[in-house]
Task: structure prediction
Amino acid sequence: MPSIESKDVHKIVVACDAGMGSSVMLATQLRKALSGLQVEVKHTPVNSIPADADVIVCHAGLADRARATAPGRVLVPFQVFIGDPAVTKLITTIKNGGTVHA
Result:
């Protein structure tokens, strides 16, 4: 299972499918929550995840496609776009230090 230390997270990618805007809102939420830290948050289609992504956040329904596009990267799947426990845990771990697990 891939993992990364919070201090090594510099780029988070919120991956989506043909979006309806929900993932854009999640990317904005992550940006605000991590403001002041040296973490870039990008929003990209699931089939175009950049190679320099440290952590990928995507809806659980897209997790297999994200893993295929970015094998070996830490993937944080979620169920709900706002207030999902997996996203909350990611934010807390990056802010407080620790290991982010796929």
